[in-house]
Design goal:
alpha/beta; Rossmann fold; Dihydrodipicolinate Reductase, domain 2; nine-stranded mixed beta sheet; seven-stranded parallel beta sheet; 18 strands; 34% helix
């Protein structure tokens, strides 16, 4: 198998690259990047001779199509705002594709290409990290065990064991905390104010209690429909720190999150673009713990039932990367391999909960030390 990882030098993409090299069935892993110097460092870090480099500008459509024309699958770890361009190129090149998700609104745009991808015989599986990704697959997995579904709650939490500014891309942080979250309640999608739904949630040890708020989550674009069975509530909340909220509030007050360009010394520049250019890259090496909890409640055989799924991972010692980076980049590697081997038969643009068969996917996670705990609660009240 020959697989290209676009954005393979980034915090999440580098994990995808290394995991791919560890499968004997993968013959070549290509890092597709504009910055080959940084890519060389990642190639050396993997310790594998399977890794090759390819200079790729994903904003150059023709060049991107050519770069992916001779691979068995494409794993896309570039910043989410470029996902639509990559999806269009994969469809034209007729190559299976997976990515790390589109922060809700980009996911909606990618889903519009479903018919085109289906007609071209191409499989695109969106959002294949931990959340989105593993969490969405767990939500559908639990829902499929019920006769009817009432509520689905997805929770992502993390604890840093040493100081760190950002483990996520600052672009993602900015998008989520300025646009505001979307939740599904009583058959309707509702846009809320940023930092809505504040509450404290207890994650498994060693994460423990975390302050959480609703997130602008790509899975909300698909789960209400894919879960079905009369589901009334679907929401996602993620842990945050007060420093994030204070920082975003100050940036808003200063006008630095505005997209409209301003003229500075005769040059027009968007404050938001300037801010993103100045932002530091995510820290991939921070010691931490991260995990997800997915709760699915409804009825089965007339009894109220709730399935709870949880997984937690700590700093990955062998890779020397954060739990967040490992839990995000590693699942995309698994799914890229499934695509390359032709194991995902459905065509079109698919959310992970539809594109991925849960059991073999969970087995691959377990091989990599990520085990999922299932607990159930049953009430005999009708």
């Amino acid at each position: 198998m020959k697989i290209i990882v676009l954005g393979g030098r980034g915090a999440m993409g580098m994990v995808t690259v290394r995991d791919l090299t560890e499968n004997p069935e993968v013959s070549e892993v290509i890092i597709g990047e504009a910055n080959l110097k940084q890519s060389e460092k990642v190639a050396k870090w993997t310790g594998s001779e399977k890794v090759s480099l390819c200079e790729v500008d994903v904003t150059n459509h023709r060049g991107l199509v050519e770069a992916i024309s001779d691979v068995d699958a494409v794993a896309n770890a570039v910043p989410y705002h470029l996902n639509l361009q990559v999806t269009k190129a994969a469809i034209e090149a007729r190559k299976p594709l997976t990515d790390l998700g589109g922060v809700y609104y980009m996911t909606l745009e990618q889903l519009k290409l479903h018919g085109e991808a289906h007609e071209a015989g191409v499989t695109v599986v969106l959002g294949c990290g931990v959340a989105p990704g593993v969490a969405d697959i767990l939500a559908k997995y639990g829902a499929d065990k019920l006769d009817s579904v009432e509520e689905v709650h997805l929770r992502y939490g993390e604890v840093n064991l040493e100081p760190v500014k950002y483990k996520w891309s600052f672009r993602t942080v900015l998008e989520e905390y300025t646009q505001g979250p979307v939740v599904y309640v009583n058959g309707e999608l509702k846009q809320l104010q940023p930092f809505s739904g504040k509450h404290v949630f207890r994650f498994p040890s060693p994460i423990g209690e975390c302050p959480c708020c609703y997130a602008l989550y790509s899975g909300i674009a698909t789960l209400p429909g894919t879960v079905g069975k009369g589901v009334k509530v679907v929401d996602c909340a993620m842990s945050y720190v007060e420093e994030d909220e204070q920082r975003i509030r100050v940036l808003n007050e200063m006008g630095l999150t505005r997209k409209e360009p301003l003229k500075v010394k005769g040059v027009e520049v968007s404050p938001r673009d300037f801010l993103l250019k100045c932002a530091p890259p995510p820290d991939v090496n921070v010691r931490d713990a991260a995990g997800v909890v997915v709760e699915v409640s409804g009825k089965k055989h007339g009894k109220k039932m709730r399935y709870v799924y949880s997984l937690v991972h700590e700093y990955h010692e062998r890779y020397s990367v954060s739990a967040l980076a490992y839990l995000t980049g590693m699942p995309m590697s698994i799914i890229a391999q499934m695509l390359a081997k032709g194991e995902i038969l459905d065509k079109g643009v698919l959310p992970p909960e539809i594109g991925i068969t849960p059991e073999p996917f969970f087995a691959e996670l377990a091989k990599r030390g990520v085990k999922i705990l299932e607990t159930t609660q049953i009430s005999h009240e009708l």
